[in-house]
Amino acid sequence: PAPVPAGHSTFTVLLDGPAAHDSAVAAIGAAGGQVLRENPAVSALVVAAPPEGFVERVAAIEGVFGATRAHVVGTAQAARGGGPARPAQAAPGPSGLDPLDTRLWGLSMIRADAARAVQAGDRRVLVGILDTGVDGSHPDIAPNLDVGLSRNFVTDIPTDPTGAPLDGPCEFEGCVDPPDHDGGGHGTHVAGTVAAAADRAGLSGVAPNVTLVNIRGGQDAGMFFLQPVVDALTYGADIGLDVINMSFYVDPWRYNCLDNPADPPAARIEQRTTVEAMNRALEYAHSKGVTLVGSLGNENEDLGRPRRDMSSPNYPAGSEYARPIDNATCTDLPVEGPHVIGVAAVGPRGEKADYSNYGVEQTSLAAPGGNGGLGGPDDMILSTYPKAILQEDGDVDAAGEVTPSGAAGGVQKVCGPAGCGYYTPLQGTSMAAPHVAGVAALVVSRHGVPDPQHPGGLTMDPDAVEQALIGSAHATACPATPRPTVPCEGTPEFNGYYGNGVVDALAALEQPSR
After folding, report:
1. Which of 268, 279, 292, 433 has its CA 20 to 30 A from that of 442?
2. Average pLDDT in the 305-317 region?
3. In this structure, which topology does domain 9-70 adopt according to CATH?
4. Residue 119, Cβ neighbours under 10 Å: how many?
5. How much is the pLDDT for 84?
6. Are residues 144 and 197 in contact, defined by beta-carbon separation less than 8 angstroms?
7. What's the half-sphere exposure (Cβ side, CA atoms, 13 Å) at 354?
8. Whose CA is closest to 70, among 4, 152, 9?
9. What is the mean pLDDT of residues 502-514?
């Protein structure tokens, strides 16, 4: 793309459709905008322009749906843990399992360990990790990551508009990380839960034989801008991904509202544009055969009855103001977007995680996400993590050894023939969603059909994948003791805490295909 001129900002401009392209581009130029590149799959333009008043000017152009500044639209949903942890056990695990798999209570809860004897995944099944990146140097990730298909759609941003550190100093030329790099750690953790290799070292994922593809849309800092996310979704659809995991939620607006009276005019235009662009991208991916999995978020909030929003816009810092949220016209994206399987989190005893969002309108399934509390790291989700990030955090020293603070937080190091891998516990709905994405990949592996026209090689109707997941889930009733401030509504078969129930890999494989 062309460079951004000095004094200009970058905008996503959404057109009404392809027919509006030529006249709209000419009018955008007259309004002071310079088109840098396009995403024809959703009729979106990336435009550089002087920032003052551009959103309002361009939104008034015939054929333009709306516009939004290139500010943050996503935050990774996970938290590091603390407290005592048992020492690592590097001896081989039971047959078919890796040494640390005995700590993966989530793997056994959803019967992914038992499902491995039936189906461990097919290499032709492609799972996209739309996150902060995937560390291709990790020995449990490298065997399954297709670096050639992987793409990075973001440019690192060292500081935010106020000058405060955001991503920090750029590690690579042009501030563009390679497609096998993760400067945040979150994406590598998610990827490991989906498909860490079963190689008798470290740990293994839910679907250890499928192929991972990094479609990076998140900054090192764990923030997600609109255009990279849209580009990642449409690219993933075009290359034949079977599943995409999305463990992030929309910022700077906690909810994107269509016409909130509390918002100024430009903010209303931007939110409407974000909703439309995301909906188009999700629809496009679904139409291309992608099963979409999203996390519900970590505010312990009924998404069907959202509380007053006190945190938006949260970028740059200090911009927030109080605004009421109307459930009918305000959307939590991407999880409330079309065709997205919304996943809530449970702890190791099957209980709703204290932090997990919920709601009868939004919850499709529940899955292990961790519920640290008094249980500390052992009640969280252990997965792969970049060594460099752990060293930055002081959890691994320069010699590659786990420090006392790392050990207290549950960090593990396991060395095998391919080198030493590092692992850390996290908790959040971010950790729940990849359990479901992994099971979805197993379903496609077992029931998908060969298609020479499909880039990945196997394909399955995403609606059929979803039906297999929800039809086989372990139904989980609301707690016997009600929680008045966090009401659980529904039946034992379907309710706001657990949706259709906790995902069950073995049962999902036994579901008939259609």
Report:
1. 279
2. 88
3. Alpha-Beta Plaits (3.30.70)
4. 20
5. 32
6. yes
7. 8
8. 9
9. 87
Count CB neighbours of 68 within 10 A: 26
Residue type, 83: G
Instruction: Please give the CATH superfamily to which domain 76-510 belongs.
Output: Peptidase S8/S53 domain (3.40.50.200)
Structure tokens at 273: 């544009």
What distance in Å separates the CA atoms of residue 145 and residue 181, rounded to the nearest whole number? 11
| Identity of residue 177 | D
Strands (E), 361-448: 365-368, 381-384, 412-416, 419-427
According to CATH, where is 3.40.50.200 located in the chain? Answer: 76-510
Residue 88 clears pLDDT 50, i.e. is over it: no
Tokens of 30: 């007259």
Beta-strand ranges (E) seen in 59-204 are 64-69, 72-76, 79-80, 126-130, 151-152
| 42 vs 410: CA distance, rounded Å | 43
Neighbours of 53 (CB within 10 A): 12
Q: Give dist(CA 497, CA 489) in Å, integer.
A: 8
Residue type, 190: V
Amino acid (one-letter) located at 367: A
pTM of this structure: 0.94
- Asked whether the predicted pLDDT for residue 81 surpasses 50, the reply is no
Q: Name the DSSP letter for residue 418.
A: T
Every domain range in the chain assigned CATH 3.30.70.80: 9-70
| CB 377 within 8 Å of CB 427 | no
Residue 117 pLDDT exceeds 70? yes
- What count of other Cβ atoms lies within 10 Å of the Cβ of residue 390? 23
Residues 6+ apart with CB under 8 A from 453: none
How much is the average pLDDT of 215-239?
A: 94
402 DSSP 8-state letter: B
Q: What is the pLDDT of residues 398-454, one digit of tens each?
A: 999 999 999 999 999 999 999 999 999 999 999 999 999 999 999 999 999 998 777
- CA-wise closest residue to 356 among 498, 258, 168, 196: 498
CA distance 8 to 70: 11
**Is residue 272 very low, low, confident or very high in pLDDT (cuts 50, 70, 90)?**
very high
3-state secondary structure of 346: strand
Q: How far is CA 217 from each of CA 125, 234, 383, rounded to the nearest angstrom? A: 21, 12, 21
Report helix angle 429-447 to 186-195, nearest 10. 40
Average pLDDT, the chain: 92
Other beta carbons within 10 angstroms of residue 158's beta carbon come to 13
pLDDT at residue number 452: 79
- Going from the C-alpha of 415 to that of each of 111, 187, 260, 396, the distances in angstroms are 27, 22, 54, 14
* Mean pLDDT for the stretch of residues 476-486: 89
